[in-house]
What we know:
Layout: H1 3-25, E1 37-44, E2 47-54, E3 83-86, E4 90-92, E5 95-97, E6 100-107, E7 112-118, E8 139-146, E9 148-162, E10 169-185
Antiparallel strand pairs: 1-2, 2-3, 3-6, 4-5, 4-10, 6-7, 7-8, 9-10
Pfam families: DUF2911
Organism: Gelidibacter sediminis
Protein name: DUF2911 family protein
Amino acid sequence: MNTFLKRLLIILAIVAVGLFLYSHFVENIFSKRLSPKDMVKFELNDTRLEVSYNRPYKKGREIFGALVPYDKVWRTGANEATTFTTNKNLLVDGHPLPNGTYTLWTVPNDSVWTVYFNTKEYPWGVDEQMQPMREPQYDLLEVEAPVIHLNNTVEQFTIAFDNTTDNLKLTMAWDQTKIEVPMEVSKVQPE
């Protein structure tokens, strides 16, 4: 066997071992994620909104006030930080939000949630000590959304856009809890 083929086989073996070790110790790239990634989009005329997030399951656990503590910052999903992107300037619950990409953070409570639109993009939702990576000095907007108690259980954390009554809302629901954040396209747009 010539030298080139020997080197190629050695390189391929090293890559294979590296992928195996990465998969085993860091993230199992060959198995289904426990909290799968998802993306929701809203498009109307030339307005485009998008949320990228990870969707954990309830799996019989008590969610709010337990798994997701009350009065503490939550990464609003699992794994990577949740991102919200808009190509238009918006009014979020009456407050201006310029077009761009933001990370979404929430502070759940039993009666009202605080929702933060943060200008910094984070590679992950929590640090090594499992503390949220949000840095408050990058919060551009903070709004409150009252809790809606549901009769049915939502098994998997779900973020959606609801425009059924021509009143756009960003909704978040899990277990028997839902919130709605009102949004509208601002009349003031960049030139």
